[in-house]
Amino acid sequence: MSVVCQIKDAALLDHCGITEKWFQLRNEISSRENQFEKILSQTGDIVNTSKHEDCSTLLQTGNVNNYRMKSDLFAIEFPFMMDSQVKRLSSSQASHDKISLKESSADRKRKRKKQRRINTNADIKFISDLKTSLSDLITLSRNESYLTQDTEPYQRNDLAKSASQIHGCGDLFQLLCENLDMHLNTGSHYNESVPHDLNLGDQFHYSAKSLVGVCVRNEDCKLVKVGHDEFLIPKRCSFLTSSFDYFISRGYQQMITSQGFDLLVIDPPWPNKSVKRKKSYATFSELNLKSLPVHHLGKDGGLICIWVTNKEQLINFVKDELFPHWCVEWIADWFWMKVTKSGVPVCDINSEHKKPYEQLIIGRCHLSAGQVVTRIHEKLNNQIVEKQREKEMSPARLPQNFLIVSVPCSLHSKKPPLSDVFSPYLPPNSNCIELFARNLVPEWSSWGNEASLKTL
Hints:
456 residues; alpha/beta; twelve-stranded mixed beta sheet; three-stranded antiparallel beta sheet; 12 helices; 18 strands; 25% helix; globular; Methyltransferase-like protein 4 isoform X1
């Protein structure tokens, strides 16, 4: 279970621990002198194997039992700060400035940001409730030794930063996805020899091209080699690597199940100034999301969850425009709070510039447009919505507000595992899929142009 500590309205997740279990990875190896780092691809995580093992044998047999998660990816010991902040705040000459974490205008030669809107009473209440839930959960987690005690401030997370600086196959699969689109648009044949479904069996070597535009299915956790890169594939998962255009035109048909999906998790590449500056990944307009075939993938009454940034415009777009377009009724707002290993938020909750949390907007799918319930602010209609929501929530009532807390992975845009958090609100043997996926999950389906293909 990824949930290691829980109260009524919040839960602490162990992202690192659950990933080890996903890949049946052993943790008997403890001495770094008897290890060497092996770079793998699937989850976006580094794992280790004993240096006395013959790696060629591991590849030939598909044995993954000698690998384990590299915990340094989660070595977030201190709140996030820029190097100039750390330098200034740790200097004895600047001790009187420790009250503020803002850089001086001389340290950062950037344009002044536009004045932010003043917090409303609703904003203040939300932040207050968030702090209360977080405080209660952190106290319990520390008492149960799931989190450490407070650490010294004004330090860098050097181990985590170092672990995340990994060079892989780059944009290889994204380029292959674009190449597939180009051939399809010109009417030429591409990947003709490869079926639309591919079951991973005894073969351990694949070309990258053979895995693009194909729904890959896997029964057992195994290690495979694609070109010069190695990938860990979890058990009983399926994934499709393709472009957005390929997916909405034909790719989704390769992943549809007879019963539909009980849970759709969507993590769009929203437009973002930080992403644009760092060139972390390609983004596109939110209006493109209307083209996602949610009505084909979703099950009537199934859950639709979409990650959003803290931009008010995007939140309103999802609730007021995107969900109604998909015939989805908004039912809940959940939040993911990113904390250090001692439970301290990675940045100030009250900050107007960067928040330590992200929002997960949850809705319920209705295949008939006449059943859609949009957000209505009038008191009477809100009561009607509440009654309808109570009838439809099964097997357990999904809380309207819930806080997920975890130490974030230092790799970019890695979300916490949601399987165990949602399991009480889904039927047994439920079908789940993630769109715009950046890693694979056991017993889930995944689609994206880098669903399993980050080489680390």
